[in-house]
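From: lab user (bench 3)
To: helpdesk
Subject: output format question, protein + adenosine-5'-triphosphate

Hello, I'm new to running complex predictions and I'm not sure whether the block I got back is the full result or only part of it. Here's what I submitted:
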Amino acid sequence: MNTRAVRAVVRKDLRIALRNKGVVLPIIIVPLIMMIVMPAVMIFLPFYLEPMDAGEELRQEMGAFFANMPAELSVLFAGLNDQQAWLMLSSMFMFAPFFLIIPLMVSSVIGADSFAGEKERKTLEALLYTPITTAELFIGKVLAAFLPAITVSWVCFVLYSVVVNIGGVMVLGRIFFPNLAWLVLILWVVPAAAALGIGFIVLVSAKAKSFQDAYQISGLVVIPIILLLFGQMGGVLYFSTPTVALIGLVIWVLDVVLLTIAVRTFGRGEIIARL
Amino acid sequence: MPEWVIETRRLTRHFGALVAVHDVNLQIARGEVFGFLGPNGAGKTTTVRLLNGVLNPTAGEIRVLGLDPISQGPAVRRRTGVLTESPALYEPLSARDNLFLFGELYDVPPDVLRRRVEELLAMFELSARADDKVASYSKGMKQRLALARALIHAPDILFLDEPTAGLDPEAARQVTELIEHLSQEERRTIFLCTHNLVEAERLCDRVGVINRGELIAVGTPEELAQRIWHGHGISVRLGRPLSAEAVASLVRVEGVAQVEVDDTELHILLDEEGRTPAVVRALVEAGAEIYAVKPREHSLEDIYFQLQADARGGST
Ligand SMILES: Nc1ncnc2c1ncn2[C@@H]1O[C@H](COP(=O)(O)OP(=O)(O)OP(=O)(O)O)[C@@H](O)[C@H]1O
Ligand SMILES: [Mg+2]
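Helpdesk reply: Thanks, we reran it on our side. This is the complete output you should expect:
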């Protein structure tokens, strides 16, 4: 493995992708909204409503949620008043799926530029005439999408923790976030989700003619499917540590399958035939 | 015996039912400029891809620098440089970044690479704009940069796929002169795909003509002319036109196949070069005033079109 060539590919793909507005805008705006604006509004909203009339509906929903909650989790809510319970509920459960969407989104947008975009710009052929193996080229391109996806997700996580803990200090009088399940989510599930986005985009890019094409197919088809699958997670899973670990495992298995198929589309002859 | 740096035996590549390259046998010596001529879709680019192990052949054998591109692709590509049909440069990056990137992909040692990049930028007159985005370059500058990129690792063999296509005459001449320099000063082996016959005539030691995947002729332009017109042509320039009897007597000289008269210019086709003295003697005896006798030269263009016409005649 020629790591110098791999690093050169990563650096080049990133520099080029980050000069594409179609890549940079979603990477900045989507996490900003999902991780800072939404949590801030959701968590702080109840403070600004008249205490009890807004509470009615909220309490009903919370009631349904609590009724189905496994015993181990109800510990979290023991002895909390409504406001405190709301903070706990929203911060611990509602935003978890976003930490699947963000790595998926970032990796597939950058991947679309690096796989389909490079094909569209017709620069791939010159790469194929260098000694780099297609495995090295593939790894370079995968890392170029994977590393920023994780970085962005982790930065989001840090910001999210700050926002949530400000609420914690105000309502609970302490810093309460993250717990173990969240750490597993961030360290184990986030990378798996990033890889999933890449696996999809490589397959899509083999067919797509341009960055826009690949981006749209993945945006319109792939992301909604994933949302359907995982959007339910916060409510259904009650977010216990083993379940989170299990979800991570399922996604990783999916990754291996997808990337194995994807790498088959990435032989020299196959790429040349599609140029 | 010359050292063949490229050799193919019955090289063949199909795309489905289409035969892009058919039974091609090539031998190219170190240091020569080999022109690969053929119309659109003849199979030139496909051949370059096969020779570099970017595409696998359907049948046949290849040796490039003694290596097999099918099983030793990276080793072959480490020693070949390719100027692709479209320049395939990274437009948002600068010339210098483009060169460094490819230097790293070819694993040129860092200190050698730094020197090499500056050398090439200077040689291709890009130093002043080396840090500007390639997107802002003219077509000619892009082509020079693409050529510099193909040379970043000092390859033994340089493949040039239509290096002057789409350039204005000035830019095209610049590129042609650079290629001439690479061949004459640096003694590089060059495999030049082109349909620009004037350029090929100027640059190439030998040419191969390919049509619909088949190599229909290989040799120096002189050899090809000889093969086509079956003999040796001479042109004689005279002080005054020759009489009809004199022309008739000339035709009777042994070995003269054909005589064409164009006022004071005679074009005579001989079965071999050795007949020339006898022809000159006959002319003197017939009272001709001879100003000059020279071997008749066929332009590569004449040769090329004759070959294509023969190929069409042969296949239909
Ligand atoms: N990947 C491919 N799939 C199917 N057909 C192909 C492929 N690559 C080339 N061909 C076909 O093979 C034939 C030879 O193509 P090639 O590109 O080698 O020609 P060329 O001599 O380089 O032509 P040009 O002067 O137009 O560049 C053409 O008919 C082309 O359509
Ligand atoms: Mg071509």
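A quick orientation on your result: The longest helix of chain A spans residues 134-171. Let us know if anything else is unclear.
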